[in-house]
Automatic annotation (TrEMBL):
Annotated region (Disordered), positions in chain: 440-470
Protein name (record): Transposase
Stretches with biased composition (Basic and acidic residues): 460-470
Keyword annotations from UniProtKB, A to Z: DNA recombination, DNA-binding, Metal-binding, Transposition, Zinc
GO biological process entries: DNA recombination; transposition
Organism: Micromonospora sicca
Gene Ontology molecular function, alphabetical: DNA binding; metal ion binding
Residue span, Cas12f1-like TNB domain: 343-408
Stated family: In the C-terminal section; belongs to the transposase 35 family.
Probable transposase IS891/IS1136/IS1341 domain location: 209-329
Residue ranges annotated for the Transposase putative helix-turn-helix domain, each copy included: 13-44
């Protein structure tokens, strides 16, 4: 499906509401229809793929092989409309958007597989799509038809599903739609931990206004993320890490032991699958809800921090952490996953554009922890167990995380006072290295601004000038 491009002055964001459906079976039916369409069309394409491989093994020429069936979304829709009467005679019970959800997911999966195979797609290698089982996440997306928030602001209206009550008021979205500053593009209904949610993709008109000077606590703030503390600021403030998963470890163990004593889908005696009991399903739902609670606590902590930083500071400087590489250390993997440090950059990308601030990302190899924030002398070695930074040149003694945050803040020497919104590309912050510093001094590199709601334009390197700390 073609990606929506927001016009100048508009941005795309999500409004997510928990649902209290009276007819939950209808939601399950639509999600099952999406899965059925995905699996059926994938089965046909897999059969063609297997036939071509068999023919090639017998020496059949490439031109004489069984032709591929088109796997673009229009081709899949055309084939499905031709086959839906015999293979799914119940198709009228569901909205056409349910089947389109599965076909769109299959088209994107096949496109990723083809791009990865040809080398056009970066990242890990993508394999051939796999069939979705009944235990897969239930989801259905609506892009056409009646999609709106009801007048009472306690119900949402979706095609074929009708009015569904929300667990909370949807007035935030309703007010924007009524004022003409928001337009609903699509709605996605998903099931998570036994609860149903409706996420609206909305184009929102935003006017970026810099907060009053009295609300700003400082021009530049450096942020050093960690495990013991969620973040350490250059002001010396240390934000505690709630560590929700670590705090709930005993509850997780109890929930898993409870599920292990019940009849699950696998029989260890016969090594065969079996029908799980309802008690086992309830135990799995309880464990899933516990995971959802942990994720909510973690997300709330990050949202509070990133919103405060974007509102109170003109410029935010953070380091470019290779979180996936750090998680290879088995002693830190669980603590890193519990802290989710990559969330800071992801949230600041769009919040800085909302609140009129700027995000800089230091180079991944910038030695912020080994550099003295007073004299800029770089220590050759600094083990992870050394929590206090001692400078042999000037005698500075400081917490290593506070020292790193101060070095990050000192990278930015010149801050432009224009409105934010300047980015090199339309998505995310992009790293642009600058010329290295003289030998023996700390080297700093910087990232461009994050995307914002206003116009996107190129920026010269002189606008974001970095240097070593004075």
């Amino acid at each position: 499906m073609k990606r929506y491009e927001a016009p100048a002055g508009w941005t795309v964001q999500a409004y997510k509401f928990c649902l209290d459906p009276a007819d939950e079976q209808s939601l399950r039916r639509h999600a099952g229809a999406a899965r059925f369409a995905f699996n059926h069309m994938l089965g046909r394409l897999s059969a063609v793929k297997a036939q071509r491989l068999a023919e090639a093994s017998y020496g059949v020429a490439e031109a004489d092989l069984t032709p591929w069936q088109g796997w673009s979304l229009p081709d899949l829709r055309r084939t499905w409309n031709h086959l839906k009467h015999p293979v799914a005679p119940w198709w009228r019970e569901c909205s056409k958007e349910a089947f389109n959800t599965g076909l769109d997911a299959l088209a994107r999966a096949l496109a990723n597989w083809a791009a990865s195979r040809s080398g056009k797609r970066k990242g890990r290698k993508m394999g051939w799509p796999r069939f979705k089982g009944r235990a897969a996440a239930r989801s259905v997306r609506f892009t056409t038809g009646a999609i709106r928030v009801d007048a009472d602001r306690r119900h949402v209206v979706l095609p074929r599903l009708g009015r569904i009550r929300t667990h909370e008021s949807a007035r935030k979205l309703a007010r924007r739609v009524e004022a003409g500053t928001a337009k609903i593009l699509s709605a996605t209904v998903t099931e998570t931990a036994g609860r149903w949610f409706c996420s609206f993709q909305v184009a929102v008109k935003r006017t970026i206004e810099r907060p009053a000077h009295a609300r700003r606590l400082g021009r530049v703030i450096g942020v050093d993320v960690g495990i013991k503390h969620l973040a350490v600021l250059s002001t010396g403030e240390m934000v505690d890490n709630p560590a929700p998963f670590t705090a709930a470890l005993k509850r997780f163990g109890k929930a898993q032991r409870r599920a292990s004593r019940r009849i699950g889908p696998y029989d260890p005696a016969t090594h065969r699958k079996r029908t799980p009991s309802n008690r086992w399903k309830r135990a799995q739902t309880q464990a899933a809800r516990l995971h959802a609670t942990v994720a909510a606590v973690r997300a709330d902590a990050w949202h509070q921090l990133t919103t405060r930083l974007a509102q109170q500071y003109d410029t935010i400087v953070m380091e470019d952490l290779h979180v996936a590489g750090l998680k290879r250390n088995r002693r830190l993997a669980r603590a890193l996953s519990d802290a989710a440090p990559a969330t800071l950059r992801r949230q600041l990308r769009y919040k800085t554009g909302w609140y009129g601030s700027v995000l800089h990302v230091a180079d991944r190899w910038y030695p912020s922890s080994k550099t003295c924030s007073r004299c800029q002398t770089v220590k050759p070695k600094l083990s992870l167990c050394e929590r206090t930074f001692h400078c042999d040149a000037c005698g500075l003694s400081l917490d290593r995380d506070v020292n790193a945050a101060r070095n990050l803040a000192a990278l930015v020497r010149h801050v432009d006072l224009e409105l934010p919104g300047d980015v090199k590309t339309g998505r995310g912050a992009c790293v642009r290295p600058v010329s290295p510093a003289p030998a023996g001094r700390a080297v700093g590199v910087e990232a461009s601004r994050p995307p914002a709601a206003n116009a996107v334009r190129q920026r010269t390197a002189a606008d974001h000038e970095l240097s070593n700390a004075q």
